[in-house]
Design goal:
Helices cover about 40% and strands about 20% of the residues. By secondary structure, the chain is α/β, with parallel strands linked by helices. It has two domains: about 250 residues, Alpha-Beta Barrel (TIM Barrel), CATH 3.20.20; about 70 residues, Orthogonal Bundle (Arc Repressor Mutant, subunit A), CATH 1.10.10. Strands 7-8-6-5-4-3-2-1-9 form a nine-stranded mixed β-sheet, sandwiched between helices. Strands 10-11-12 form a three-stranded antiparallel β-sheet, with no helix packed on it. Strand 5, helix 6 and strand 6 form a beta-alpha-beta unit. It is globular and about 55 Å long.
Amino acid sequence: MTGLYLHIPFCRRKCPYCDFYSLEPAETQLAAYPPLLIRHLRLAARQAQVQGPFATVFFGGGTPSLLPPAAIGEILGAADACFGLADDAEITLEANPGTLTRESLRGYRAAGINRLSLGVQSLRARHLQTLGRLHGPDEARRAVDWARQAGFANLSLDLMFALPGQSLDDLEAEIAAYLALAPEHLSCYGLSIEEETPFAHRHRQGLLRLPDEDQYAAAFLLLHERLAGAGYAHYEISNYARAGMECRHNQHYWRRGAHLGVGAGAHSFFARGWGERWAVAPDLAAYQGALEADRDPARMLESFDARGALAETLYLGLRTSAGVAEADLVKGFGQGLGQAFPEAVRRTAPSLHLTQGRWRFTTEGWLLYDHLISAFF
């Protein structure tokens, strides 16, 4: 299985908490970008960096829904021509509710998008205002309704929690509002402060107060309890899904599957040796210049040895409810987890446990994930 990620580095306005690479584009930049992606795909095909067909495609950003449906269709057509698309390929588009219309959603569906990820973040007006979002609750609900009318049967909604001034009662109401929309998938992210963002500056000045660790933990566990009770599997630290509706593209990442990253700021993983990670610099002008000169815009970030590949296998796999199979570790690396990291296993118990041949963290362990996983590095 091979995946394709396409980074669309444009937003109408950058959110104050976001540190992803994005620009506020001119119309000329939006129009010129799809041909660059197509040129990148053709270059990658000539270099045979990955083998098709693509089983998953993910348009991420930024705000991919700033591109018109016709452009999305042209990009998918180029991906198919260069590598092939699997008959059952999962093809996701991230979208901002405020950029969507009935017509554009129909167009995206006709172009081949079959999974829509809506950056709703909240259904409360005051929280959306705090987060600097350009849409309101009504626009989010309307986007969901229009998406259903357009034929989208695989819909994911983003929900942010641990927001300034958000109580557990607020979060209860938020969860109920989301469940009323009946999405197939929910991505639930606690607000974090990223360096060099407007939120980081406000936080340093004491102008932005976030919930403390205990409040964060209570919110995380409340989400787990309510969403699991509503029939959603908590299949990764931040992700919930109805049975069979897990994001296949992200699952592929967490299994260290090969994927090609196309676009300014995109990352790739190639399954050569113990694995290689490559990245395109987050620089639109440099990206364009490299492609116009017929040069690969990506550079290698890291080439793994066996120990590094094993550690990353754990880092990614233990984020998921499936965990990591002991037999797979023995087959792939010649030793099980207890042999490779006896001290780390001891230090992370009882949050880490082996059941039915698979190593997993408990739900409560996920709350301490960054601390616990550091024992393996």
